[in-house]
Description:
3 copies of one chain form a homotrimer.
Chain A: E1 10-15, E2 18-23, H1 34-48, E3 55-60, H2 71-77, H3 90-106, E4 111-116, E5 119-121, H4 123-129, E6 133-137, E7 141-143, H5 157-175, E8 179-180, H6 181-186, E9 192-194, H7 197-212, H8 216-228, H9 234-250, H10 252-262
Parallel strand pairs in A: 2-3, 3-4, 4-6, 5-7, 6-9
Antiparallel strand pairs in A: 1-2, 7-8
Helix pairs in contact in A: 1-3, 8-9
Amino acid sequence: MTSLPDCETLVVALSGSTLFVTLNRPETKNALSDQMVRELTALCALLEGTRDIRAVVLRGSEGCFCAGGDISIFKESLSTPPPTDGGRDPLAIKNKRFGNFLIRLQAIPQVLIAVVEGVAFGGGLGLVSVTDVALCHADARFALSETGLGITPAQIAPFVVQRVGLTATRHLALTGHRFDGRHAEKIGLVHTVASDREALEKALSQTLKEIGRCAPGANAETKRILMNTMTMALDNVLDDAADAFVVQLRGAEGQEGVAAFLEKRPAAWTEQDP
Amino acid sequence: MTSLPDCETLVVALSGSTLFVTLNRPETKNALSDQMVRELTALCALLEGTRDIRAVVLRGSEGCFCAGGDISIFKESLSTPPPTDGGRDPLAIKNKRFGNFLIRLQAIPQVLIAVVEGVAFGGGLGLVSVTDVALCHADARFALSETGLGITPAQIAPFVVQRVGLTATRHLALTGHRFDGRHAEKIGLVHTVASDREALEKALSQTLKEIGRCAPGANAETKRILMNTMTMALDNVLDDAADAFVVQLRGAEGQEGVAAFLEKRPAAWTEQDP
Amino acid sequence: MTSLPDCETLVVALSGSTLFVTLNRPETKNALSDQMVRELTALCALLEGTRDIRAVVLRGSEGCFCAGGDISIFKESLSTPPPTDGGRDPLAIKNKRFGNFLIRLQAIPQVLIAVVEGVAFGGGLGLVSVTDVALCHADARFALSETGLGITPAQIAPFVVQRVGLTATRHLALTGHRFDGRHAEKIGLVHTVASDREALEKALSQTLKEIGRCAPGANAETKRILMNTMTMALDNVLDDAADAFVVQLRGAEGQEGVAAFLEKRPAAWTEQDP
């Protein structure tokens, strides 16, 4: 059984093969602190090493997803003087660390699901952008609010481009436009919008049920192939995928899946909604 | 006149400058067999060599587009032992062949139209993903169902990413989510959804009429330029396109098109709905 | 204060920090002439050199955005003989110049807004495709009409792919399909569609108000980062962005923005709708 790490800023709970992760700094609307990013990164390390966990559900405490970066931390960080020896500014190193974290979170072998209520601003919108499935409440509010604060969504906007394309991102990033869950679904930021909390929980439950029918190893390989399309030429993606296809087909999951299909029964890995 | 090949798994008919191709293995819901892919590949060779055919309409027999790969063939193929000499697994070579086929089908100089009724699962969804125009019935059902069978949509998912983007594909490929024609249109998989069969035929007729007003050579060059954007840097795309523009403008189609416009008459190439 | 150039084909007016640019060849539905492209290019040079202007609003005179290239100019240009010395055809050089112009217009440090009424055909659709925010009237009409004229949207289609993706562009470019403002919004060509002129002006006013709350330098840096995602690998985009983030945070805008936020007051750069 997977042993879960102790966290200060997250509440982490395993139910069946689903890990529920709750951002838990409600006094700041779950703003991203250094500690929170460190704890999420430690979770990534754990998830990369296990196949027992098949889905990860990310939400925020007290009905609020994540208000983004913590402005008081930005203020504090200004007290760090720029380097005088020509080295790289420690604030740039720290900023890039968040981009590296999003790259790593995006690539975990599990299906990553965001359930968004309340706000998802700045870095919170970044988190949504790297998930495999995003569900939201129609009343949720989203914004790339950085330039209104005189700064730039440096480590976030590139992931928003990957998520919703350049066209929608230009509008959001250069106007700070606030939008709701329905608009989020229209531009493709989230996959499903629910009109109330009950519908939202039902959509989550339905998604977990669907994932419970998918072979975990096949899902992990498929996610790897999908991410390859971001960086590799099509022909190379397809060559790699052909080799992965055969390993999967000849392996235990492929043999079980084909047999279950022909015998018209659920495959052995099938899991109901936890 | 173009001479059409004899096919076992396809029904092929020419009407005016439009080639109607029907996947015709109704007993398997038009699942893709090796023979069918071979026959479709032979059609690609024919289409690459002619400009008399301007549009290709792809549908499935008996109101069903295509159920995807044939699971019983997957089962059979498992009897092929893996190579013992360190060579590439013949199952990987065969898998990659499907990706190569989709690349080739995607690039034919004609306008490729899919008309989707019934189901488009797995490889069937792959076929839809490489068309220039896709029309579907609102009740059509789509899914990337592979990971539910323990395998991976290796040669299909990359084309779905190209079609609807990474965000929508992650959701579809990692949950096996079944969706209908309206959702297909919402995520951009198809261009038009029709509420009944009559409206579907009307949409096809309208599309063929529009294509009948476009100069065939200009369309072939434009399609080539569009596909270039997938693999070439923008500046190179534009340089190549500038040369293509001039060949087209100075050529017979350009001279006729400009003259017809100024004389307010249909251009010589104009064709009505076949 | 910025001194505005004299223009024959454009009406140019500054209000607050917003530059209003009107294409003004109403007798041709504001078709793009060589002179108009030269004058727009001169405006780009001016805009690249100033930060006093924060937004540029592009529209067409007499309620008509832009009918595209001028066909009578295409006809005239055919009288230029092809080069006999093996050099590049001057018509190709001229064609590519339009693509270079769109690349340059796309990259101006200001927020570029299109307000589309009437028609946006061919090159007019190209102009819309490179804006940061596009608003349109529901009755506006759009088309990539080139192949109906026997030519190819060589310098336009690649920007439409960047704007709405390959899937939607294939349909538009290979059928010449005419569509209205609602369809333009559905495929993501424009961000907002308004049902009447009053709503359109209100949407513009709202957009300018949002931009007025964004720090101009932060917006310019953010736009630069967004455009980088089109040509650079993600890791390089993020590294560059981290350095830009720190310059912005340590600079005047970052210090003012963080202070204003914590003091719950508008930042010094805030501008109301001009």
